[in-house]
From TrEMBL:
The keyword Oxidoreductase applies. Keywords: Oxidoreductase. This is Perakine reductase protein. Its EC number is 1.1.1.317.
Length: 425
């Protein structure tokens, strides 16, 4: 039975172009699987109705969720709600994702085709906020956003957004057409955007929508007080891997202790911390459980002082969490261990134990007698075997630093460029 919460959900401006949304949004991804088994159509519609009844009007989906089935489900739920009171966000750009490879597409003709298909699946006349889900580095952002701008002019889209974009890309995109929102991961354990992205968005008047605000459910107790579903994508998330998870549980205990001080749950405190980062920050936690939805909305009632925020940040520093941020659905590198010529391909999906084994093996061997080789240069691999190659200087450096951190070594003996970037000639 649906019931109305006593918590008032305020409304805020997202960006500078007139988009107004509920202070807390709802991420729809989990309704059709990935983190957990898909829910029934009836349950999915029911939880969206419950969210709306309690003041949430900002719903976030994408064509790749399902794929496609998420938008279809949201479209059916919207039929039971007043469309003019809903702010609907969807995304395009991930052409293919099968769990181990990803293909990004930002070509203008693909942008238009995706929008037309999403409108049809959602069964709506327009999408309020349309994001590029991931940036296609092989297509100038000016070309992609130029086509998105045309969609705005045609009334098919009202506002534009970018997800996981670099500062340079955001600035260039905004020069073509005002960007209303940038969607990034932001939580107590992921704060990469605070140094550059947040100040830039505030300079340009762009709102910040934060996905995974509860650390993919970790701060709500996922894998701590409840087990991960066997088919959850989180099973290969670095922060949820066996050794890292045990270390991270210590910080979860710190959050639990702090939440008692504020008379709330750990997840409410984690959300409240994020909500207090600014009125231009709109978290979009997702859940398939009514009680979790109510719990998330309750975070809006928690008031934190500057001293409280500092205490929480100091007690749970982002660098204190074990395991890297999962920045993409595909990650791999090759290492050569010892003097026997052993070459091992490590894919993050389903192979975190092997990765930890390699790192542990290196720690138990004399480093000076090991010749360690790894490679960079393949940004992504498509389902048909095609490569997206990158050898720009900043990418070279970022890859090397990330590999050093993953391998937990001070240096790499032999560093390869994995494939040549023909566009660099």
């Amino acid at each position: 039975m649906e019931k109305q919460s006593n918590v008032h959900v305020p409304r805020v401006k997202l960006g500078s172009q007139g988009l107004e949304v509920s202070r807390l949004g709802y991420g729809c991804l989990g309704l059709t699987g990935l983190y957990n088994p898909p829910v029934s159509k009836e349950h999915g519609i029911s939880i969206i109705n419950q969210a709306f009844l309690n003041g949430i009007t900002f719903f976030d989906t994408a064509d790749v969720y399902g794929p496609h089935s998420n938008e279809i489900l949201i479209g059916k739920a919207l039929k039971q709600l007043p469309r003019e009171k809903i702010q609907l966000a969807s995304k395009f750009g991930i052409e293919n994702f099968d769990g181990s490879s990803v293909m990004i597409n930002g070509r203008p003709e693909y942008v238009r085709a995706c929008c037309e298909a999403s409108l049809k699946r959602l069964d709506v006349a327009y999408i309020d906020l349309y994001y590029q889900h991931r940036v296609d580095k092989s297509v100038p952002i000016e070309d992609t956003v130029g086509e998105m701008k045309k969609l705005v002019e045609e009334g098919k889209v009202k506002y534009l957004g970018l997800s996981e974009a670099s500062p340079d890309t955001i600035r260039r995109a905004h020069a073509v057409h005002p960007i209303s929102a940038v969607q990034m991961e932001w939580s107590l354990w992921t704060r990469d955007l605070e140094q550059e992205i947040v100040p830039l968005c505030r300079e340009l008047g762009i709102g910040i929508v934060t996905y995974c605000p509860l650390g993919s459910g970790f701060f709500a107790g996922k894998a701590v007080v409840e087990n991960l579903p066997s088919d959850s994508i989180l099973a290969w998330h670095p922060k949820f891997s066996r050794n890292n998870l045990e270390k991270n549980k210590i910080l979860y205990a710190c959050l639990t202790n702090l939440s008692r001080k504020h008379h709330c749950t750990p997840s409410q405190l984690a959300l409240a911390w994020l909500l207090h980062q600014g009125s231009d920050v709109v978290p979009i936690p997702g859940t398939t459980k009514m009680e979790n939805l109510e719990n998330n909305i309750g975070s809006l009632n928690i008031k934190l002082t500057e001293e409280d925020l500092k205490e929480i940040s100091d007690a749970l520093p982002a660098e204190g969490f074990a395991g890297e941020r999962l920045t993409g659905p595909f990650a791999a590198y090759i290492v050569k261990l010892g003097t026997q010529g052993l070459e091992v391909l490590v894919l993050l999906k389903g192979n975190l134990d092997k990765l930890e084994l390699i790192m542990q093996a290196l720690k138990e061997l004399p480093r000076e007698e090991i010749q360690l080789a790894t490679k960079f240069g393949i940004a992504s691999i498509s389902k048909d075997g095609g490569f997206e190659v990158n050898w720009r200087p900043e990418y070279v450096r970022a890859c090397c630093e990330a590999s050093l951190k993953r391998l937990q070594v001070d240096y790499i003996d032999l560093y390869y460029q994995h494939r040549i970037d023909q566009t660099a000639y």
